[in-house]
Please model this.
Amino acid sequence: MLKQIQVRPLGQAEEARFQQLMQAHPYLGALPKIGETLWYVASWGEHWLGLLSFSAAAWKCAARDRWIGWDFRHQYDRLKLIANNSRFLILPDWHRPNLGSRILSLCLKRLDGDWLARFGHRLLLVETFVDPQRFRGTLYQAANWTCVGESLGFRRTRQGYSETQAAPKKVFVRALHRHSPALLCAPALPPAYRIGAHKMMLSAAQMRSLPEFFAQVSDPRRAQVLLRCAQEIITNAVRHAGARNLWLVFEATSDGELAIHARDDGRGSSQVKPGNGLSGMRERLSQFGGRLDIVTARDQGFVLDVWLPAYAEGGTS
Model:
């Protein structure tokens, strides 16, 4: 029987039956399709044996994130490379030895390809959460998943996370590529795993500092120039320099200049070859009497200093 089992994505006409069975049997109940979600059915001939749901990864999970070892700025950009096995149901009449691990293994063999076909990008990792008060996670262990710790017990809500802790869950992960953790932590992803435009998350302190800095710029044209420079610096660090970290300092000097000081820990270069982005920064700054200084060396990252007079020469605006 085990060799004759098939696992496939659910057809749209079958979704109502899937939801009815999910609502009737597992303690968690049915789960709506939100964002990137795939539903699977495991069958033997015409008989449905099991149901699975894969959806978006948990926004935060300390045990998973420690196991991966990634920086939170890269995490923000790469969470879509992780899927969460949010539901797994073996239908009541079909509990057999090794059936669950067989279904899960068959599903994971095709999940990456199905995700690419449906959503246009690949996966590197799958995760799931197991309630230890109800289950031991034996099925996942038999299918070569790794328990990386426990969750903190907070639930995701529309406002963020619940204020009170519920029972912690065991966190299991399964790599879909032999170098999954290394790829998720890499300064730059291989082209096959890049999704849309690059993103970098700023810390809360950095985000709070931006309005304070730009509030000091009375000329909206100069504020716009500085904002464009900051955007280009971030883009350069993520897209071209392959940086893990970017440090930004915004300064209004005592001698009437506005400055952005940036440093990243990317690849660096033996010589500066300004592309359209850096050339555009220099041109915009020069129009208002500003300048751009760049220092770099191979494997030493980039240091960029943007200088712009707060006011036009001889004026106060």
